[in-house]
Write a structure and sequence with these properties.
By secondary structure, the chain is of the alpha/beta class. It has 2 domains: 143 residues, Aspartate Aminotransferase, domain 1; 240 residues, Type I PLP-dependent aspartate aminotransferase-like (Major domain) (Aspartate Aminotransferase, domain 2, 3-Layer(aba) Sandwich). Helices cover 37% and strands 19% of the residues. The strands form 4 sheets. The chain has a 7-stranded mixed β-sheet, sandwiched between helices. The chain has a 4-stranded mixed β-sheet with strand order 1-2-3-15. A hairpin with a 2-residue loop joins strand 13 and strand 14. Helix 4 packs parallel to helix 9. The model has no long low-confidence stretch (mean pLDDT 97). Bound molecules: pyridoxal-5'-phosphate (PLP). The site of pyridoxal-5'-phosphate has 15 residues, from helix 5.
Length: 391
């Protein structure tokens, strides 16, 4: 049986896959099982932030695997505490809690927010307001938190206590908040929702409004974090101070990790046995994450992300089929003339691994992509969109 045949027979069909079986990669280049070469501007949805098989990352991970590959959370771990220290020092936040995915990071933030409110105000003040078009994960609770009706099917009963407000509409936010609201959770750039960049004024007004009411600000940086937008976290572009920040995708550099970071006033909310996960804080995963973080915080690295993003945007706007670009750093949504899903399939068949977000094409290239590689990606996209227009 081929890989595809086995997959179709033995793996639950939760993804509509493209007809490609990737086998190996280096930098922004991947190869499939037939040896066909691809340029990857999707990074496995923003995960391979340093590209495929970065040498230093491979060394950090394999050395850690050969030293101690796992210990339970009943013991101290140098890799995990180093990583938590770095993140707290870089952000001014106070403590981290470890998990294994973006959804888990958000679950943790939701639990911390609700427990903070329970401890301080008692039962009932547990509502969390999120934004329409948001995406927060696939567990039953994070589906509830996700502000898109398509995610609220089949799996009833969903977790209670979420309300949704239209993004960039302060009145809508005021209408959604009640006396029982304990937190507001949002992405400053909605990734899955179509690369929607929130307005600065709206976000600042939202922060002020929430502060006055002791409503916690949870910023979901699962897709936007760890250098993706040209800053360590995208909220830095807005000048706000979140109470909880969730991190996943890009930080592991390819291994599964989720983190919830909290501000000083929340640092003692969680006590032993209120939260946990067997695999969380795994030393191999944390060794990779430490390497990613050390790399992207080198002087000049994040400036280069913005510079390359601006270059990519300029080149994209020269393409006849491109109607507009929504971008911050190397997080890029491309409005095109025509169907984005068909265009993505054409690109992939032509050797450009690209993704979509709603009716846009989306690029989340590895942060180490070069201008020459951007040029190559652009010419592949140009060719694919041309074919796309005349079937
Ligand atoms: C991908 C994503 C998630 C979910 O992360 P998983 O690792 O798939 O659980 C949550 N929030 C945002 C903003 C994401 O982009």
């Amino acid at each position: 049986m081929t890989t595809k045949e086995k997959d179709l027979q033995y793996i639950m069909h939760t993804y509509g896959r493209y007809d490609v079986a990737l086998q190996r990669g280096k930098g922004v280049i991947a190869y499939d099982e037939d040896g066909k070469r691809y340029i990857d501007v999707s990074s496995g949805i923003g995960v391979n932030s340093l590209g495929y098989c970065d040498e230093g990352w491979v060394k950090a991970v394999s050395e850690q695997a050969a030293t101690i590959q796992h210990m339970s959370n009943y013991f101290y771990s140098k890799q995990a505490s180093d990583l938590a220290e770095k993140l707290c020092t870089l952000t001014g936040l106070s403590k981290a809690c470890f998990g294994n995915s973006g959804a888990e990071a958000n679950e943790c933030a939701i639990k911390v927010a609700r427990k903070y409110s329970f401890d301080k105000y008692g039962k009932g003040r547990s509502q969390i307001v999120t934004l329409k078009n948001s995406f927060h994960g696939r567990t039953v609770t994070t589906l509830s938190a996700t502000g898109q009706d398509v995610f609220h099917n089949y799996f009833f009963p969903f977790t209670e206590g979420f309300a949704f407000a239209e993004a960039n509409d302060f009145e809508a936010l005021k209408n959604a908040v009640t006396d029982n609201t304990c937190a507001m959770m949002f992405e400053v750039i909605q990734g899955e929702g179509g690369v929607n960049i929130l307005d600065k004024d709206y976000v600042r007004e939202l922060e002020r409004f929430c502060r006055e009411r002791d409503i916690l600000l949870i910023v979901d940086e699962v897709q936007t974090g760890i250098g993706r937008t040209g800053k360590l976290f995208a909220y830095e572009h807005y000048g706000i101070k979140p109470d909880l920040v969730t991190v996943a995708k890009g930080i592991g550099g390819g291994l599964p990790i989720g983190l919830c970071l909290c501000a000083d006033k929340l640092k003692d909310v969680m006590s032993p046995s209120t939260h946990g996960t067997t695999f969380g804080a795994n030393p191999v995963v944390c060794a990779g994450a430490n390497y990613v973080l050390d790399t992207i915080t080198q002087p000049g690295f994040l400036d280069a992300v913005e510079e390359k993003g601006a270059y990519l945007e300029e080149k994209l706007l020269e393409l006849p089929k491109v109607k507009g670009v929504r971008r911050m750093g190397l997080m890029v949504g491309i409005e095109i003339d025509g169907d984005a899903h068909e265009a993505a399939a054409k690109c992939i068949a032509n050797g450009l691994l690209i993704i979509t977000a709603k009716d846009l094409l989306r690029m989340l290239p590895p942060l180490i992509i070069t201008k020459a590689e951007i040029d190559e990606a652009i010419s592949m996209l140009r060719a694919s969109l041309k074919i796309h227009s005349c079937p």
